[in-house]
Amino acid sequence: NYLRISPFSSFLFSLAPWIPVVGLEIHAQISSNSKLFSGSQVQFAAPPNSLVSFFDASLPGTLPVLNRRCVEAAVMTGLALNCSINKKSLFDRKHYFYADLPAGYQITQQRVPIAVNGSLSYSLCIDNKMSQMVTKTVRIKQIQLEQDSGKSLHDDTRCQTLVDLNRAGVGLMEVVMEPDMCCGEEAAAAVRELQLILQTLGSSQAVMAEGQLRVDANVSVHHPGEPYGVRTEVKNINSIRFLAKAVDYEIQRQIEELENGGTILNETRAFDSKLGCTVPMRDKEGKQDYRFMPEPNLPPLILYDTKSLPANVNHQQVINIDWIQERLPDLPSVKREKLVEQYGILPEHSFTLLNEDGLAEFFESVVKQTQMKPKKVIGWILNDLLSYLKQHSLTVKERSV
Amino acid sequence: MLRASLRQVSTALKEGRVTPTELCQRCLALIKSTKFLNAYITVAEETALKQAEESEERYKRGQPLGILDGIPIAVKDNFNTAGIETTCASNMLKGYISPYNATVVQKLLDHGAVLLGKTNLDEFAMGSGSTDGVFGPVRNPWSYSKQYKEKSVPKSHSEDEESGWVITGGSSGGSAAAVSSFTCFAALGSDTGGSTRNPAAHCGVVGLKPTYGLISRHGLIPLVNSMDVPGILTRCVDDAAVLLGSLAGHDPKDSTTIQDDFKPFELPNLTDVSKLSIGIPKEYHAPGLSSEILALWSKAADLFKNAGAKVVEVSLPHTRYSIVCYHVLCTAEVASNMARFDGLEYGHRSDMKDSTESMYAATRREGFNDVVRGRILSGNYFLLKQNYEKYFVKAQKVRRLIANDFVKVFRSGVDVLLTPTTLSDAAPYMEFIQEDNRTRSAQDDILTQAANMAGLPAINVPTALSERGLPVGLQFIGRSFQEKQLLTVAKWFEKQVQFPVIQLEEVKRHDSGVFQHQKSASFS
Question: What region holds the Amidase domain (chain B) (predicted)?
Fold first, then answer.
């Protein structure tokens, strides 16, 4: 469905179909009281530089101390995404100079991340018809724990940069999805499902508008039977809707470029939401060598399961993977199945119910309290309630039942 | 009084023979009259006197905080001290006042110690002479001792003390000189490749590098995180044990410290060494080892043998690769650790305003000396993607082999290893600066850095005076976390050798000593 014939393209290429390949790198901010390696509070929109510990400002002589809650969040997320959890993972330093990276390096997990080899199933409808849903799976390469950077604000008129370190050191989970998707819609559906999972787990609030979920898309195109094409990385995507747009635009741009006899550069591009297109980012230093090295101040992160748990151990000092597994909440896919089974509603309606925070619970309590038929309640929700809420810019949680 | 050991002066304080304030004032006066040594970068006179006063109150109430209460100490200027400048002897941090205390500093203060000031070092502790800091070189107090003056014959009449003075070794030279010249009773140094033991050897004091992970590094401005350890410099082995007892143990702010509690210990007076096995690693017979030190080393081995200990030659076959691997690992971590000094949050910032990048570059060029910049450059080279396996990973593998060498030797039944600490006695400054820092460090760290590579505890015990009248020390290396055994052996050895006390004019004038424990017998 991506066969495009450009007026300038040579006839040699014009009939060969293009296969787009999309992979995603997603940064999810961990929902925790304090940062990944320091005791400073995590809070959105606090006054600038009000949540900065000596470590966050990288004062000389300070050392990282790993936040247990962040590790647990990553383990939960890994389990929910069917990953194998590494019982031993390592931290590394990734070096680059930037004003909002006070240490000159980011602590991340480059060599051995906390979780690997998972998968995420997501559904999307064919041709925008809710009744025709297909389920697809994207492989999860890995989940790694790492520090967030601060924020730089450039004041071009006064020629100065202001730095806010409130975000510096907040825990991130970087979820790397294999290039198993082929269009913007798929990418958007996968991210939406991930977002729901993170919110269900409580491991991240995953609000894109607040930067708690940041998505970079790797896009390339190639002909069948040929190796993958040169890929570009698209950044600056701040909503799921824009993700779909950005990916589709980039696919189309690459196809047109190639069909016009051009080449694709391995570059970073930014999505301009106003213009609806991607533009090359000014990459001043060109290719960076991050000079990775092991973080010497953090011992290897060791996790246990019930089998490997040492006998005389302080339970506050260890993390038991099995224990976390047993306490995982129902994931969205399970919740949907239960709704379909219990209330006899259509599968696509279960998606709608889970798509908005609190709507499924609202549905269940209406059914329970009114004793009406679930299908009727669904009809009312879909036709009346949601449009009412939308009209008045309300959320279901704000309405009292 | 100033020449007393920490334990002795503590007793004097308890008995009221001297007050903390008197003691503090005497030390401050002696610091002033030995200013030419350049041992201190900052003298915190005001806060020291205030701390002494508070200590005095506690003694009056009969509630001193322990053996360290009221004891004047000094701290190397790469430990953070709240409210007192912390410079690392670098333009980069000149004028930098940290908002927090390093854990070790906090612990000393919590025990009632009086912090006299911050001692001089090589810039960011990179060096083995204490000659490469922005505040100038430290002079070895022994240069001005009766012992040295008597033995060194000036080459010509025009040549005076000015050109004949010898270096302290480094990089904790200021701390070693401070303890050696009696301006404080103990000092903190840091030890990454020998930075505590080397100057201790040259200045005739005890220098202890504890096991990696035994003492918190929180607040120590790092050189090499995986090898740095706070070091202890004292007059005698017993005093080192006292300091260790107050500093060691888990710190929630340093994830690499041991989890178990540390039990402070008193050192027994060993009378029977027949159950001891002393290992003599043959690889420490290194090129450049002076015949004088070699003779002293074998004499020390004989001393143990004659007293009934088992003395065995052992081999640590990978020792010869240690210094080059140390260089790779050290510079790589330096490159990383120094990245934070960009002039934005703290420290020096260049006036260069063309762009952020040019500001970074100018800040770092102005802030760091050649030695620091050189190490950053080579460290970044080793960390480049195409070099990482070839240098960094390989060096790490060899590091493991070096550590295993020690494990094997200790497993074979050896309790403690005996080696020289330095290749020779202290070089005159004029001679020392003929070679560059890199060459010097490679030579001077040769006998000490392997203990850092393996994380083992090691101690310099002053042993004798050289023909030139300068101190020479020997090193004991112990098993991981077996400080008690190591120090017990060191204490026995210390007692046998009766290292002479330095005779300094300045000290005589200041010290109307209550007890002068002049030692006459000399070992060599």
Answer: 26-487
% of chain B surpassing 90 pLDDT: 89
Query: Of the residues B5, B76, B180, B424, which is catalytic?
Result: B76
What is the pLDDT at residue B512?
58
The answer on pLDDT for A7 being more than 70 is no
CA distance A260 to A133: 36
Q: How far apart are CA B28 and CA B448, in angstroms?
A: 33
ipTM of the modeled complex: 0.94
Q: How many helices (H) and strands (E) does chain A have?
A: 10, 16
- Cβ B383–A291 below 8 Å, yes or no? yes
Nearest chain B Cα distance for residue A296, angstroms: 6
pLDDT given for residue A400 in this prediction? 54
3-state helix, strand and coil shares in percent for chain B, rounded to the nearest 5: 45, 15, 40
Please give the structure tokens belonging to residue B206: 């005890």
Who contacts A59 (Cβ-Cβ below 8 Å, separation ≥6)? Answer: B80, B98, B99, B100, B345, B346
How high is the pLDDT of residue B2? 86
* CATH H-level, domain B6-320+396-510: superfamily: Amidase signature (AS) domain (3.90.1300.10)
Tell me the per-residue pLDDT of B26-59, one tens digit each, with 9 for 90 and over.
999 999 999 999 999 999 999 999 999 999 999 9
Type and span of the H or E element at B419: strand B416-420
Tens digit of each residue's pLDDT (9 = 90 or more) over A193-228? 999 999 999 999 999 999 999 999 999 999 999 999
Q: Quick one: tokens of B395?
A: 């060096």
Burial of B99 per CB tally in 10 Å (0-12, 13-18, 19+): exposed
SS (H, E, C) B85-154: ECCCCCHHHCCCECCCCCHHHHHHHHCCCEEEEEECCCHHHCCCCCCCCCCCCCECHHHHCHHHHHHCCC
DSSP 8-state secondary structure symbol assigned to residue A104 = S
What lies within 8 Å, CB to CB, of B494 at 6+ separation is B206, B236, B237, B461, B462
* Alpha carbon of residue A270 to chain centroid: 17
Give yes or no for residue B516 having a pLDDT over 50: no
Q: Dihedral, CA atoms, B411, B415, B416, B418, nearest 10 degrees?
A: -90
Instruction: Calculate helix-pair angle for A359-370, A332-343, nearest 10 degrees.
Output: 20
pLDDT greater than 60 at residue A12: no
User: In terms of DSSP H, where are the helices of B384-482?
Assistant: 385-388, 394-411, 429-432, 437-444, 449-454
A58: left (phi over 0), alpha (psi -120 to 50) or beta: left
Region B126-143: what's the mean pLDDT?
97
**Residue B177 pLDDT exceeds 60:** yes
Can you tell me the mean pLDDT for A259-277? 93
Q: How far apart are CA A168 and CA A57, in angstroms?
A: 8
Which chain A residue has the Cα nearest residue B87? Answer: A60
Query: B155: pLDDT confidence band, cut at 50, 70 and 90?
Result: low
Select from A66, A102, A317 the Cβ nearest to the Cβ of B344. A102
Q: How many CA atoms lie within 13 A of B306 on its CB side?
A: 8
User: At residue B248, what are phi and psi to the nearest 5 degrees?
Assistant: -75, 160
User: What does the pLDDT look like over A88-121, one tens digit per residue?
Assistant: 999 999 999 999 999 999 999 999 999 999 999 9
Q: Measuring CA to CA, how many Å separate A227 from each of A138, A167, A219, A223, A250?
A: 20, 40, 14, 8, 19
> Does residue B442 register a pLDDT over 50?
yes
Q: Is A260 within 8 Å of A9 (Cβ atoms)?
A: yes
| B388 contacts A95? CB cut-off 8 A | no
Give dist(CA A353, CA A280) in Å, integer.
39
Residues 317..336 of A with a Cβ closer than 8 Å to B: which? 317
| Cβ contact A61–B220 (<8 Å) | yes
- Concerning whether B310 is annotated as a catalytic residue, the answer is no
Give φ, ψ of A215 to 5 degrees: -120, 125
Nearest residue to A390 (alpha-carbon basis) of A347, A346, A359: A359
